[in-house]
Amino acid sequence: MARFRFVLLGAGFFARKWLEAVQARNDCEVVAIADRLSAQAEALRDEFKLAGATLYADWKEAVTQGKADGVIITLPQTLHPEAAVLALKAGRHVLCEKPLAVDMAGARAVYDEARVRPGQVLMVNQN
After folding, report:
1. Domain count, the chain
2. 17 in active site
3. Tens of pLDDT along 59-85?
4. Which domain holds residue 97?
5. What is the 3-state secondary structure (H, E, C) of the chain?
6. Catalytic residue among 49, 67, 89, 98
7. What is the CATH number of the domain that holds 8?
């Protein structure tokens, strides 16, 4: 069985918790990490022994260029809707740290995009 490949968007505290959860499974892996602070992404890659993971300074590039099945969004909350919509449009499944959005307009944008993509999973959760 092929492993489910994730791109991790954001390399802060919540990213660590999601990496722990992913690494606890044999059927998942993180293949890329995106963070505007390259040193933070590198440190996370090293700490979790992800030598093969690609690093991106631009989360949008990671979503569209990365070779992954899904994204885990741990970016600042105000970016959650934009990242989720872009990921859905790129054909990725989405696992978003809560909250999905900070306002109804953002939540509606994600909802509308997910509705036209029934083959993709959109999940909001807190690890």
Report:
1. 1
2. no
3. 999 999 978 999 999 999 999 999 999
4. 4-125
5. CCCEEEEEECCCHHHHHHHHHHHCCCCEEEEEEECCCHHHHHHHHHHCCCCCCEEECCHHHHHHHCCCCEEEECCCHHHHHHHHHHHHHCCCEEEEECCCCCCHHHHHHHHHHHHCCCCCCEEEECC
6. 98
7. 3.40.50.720
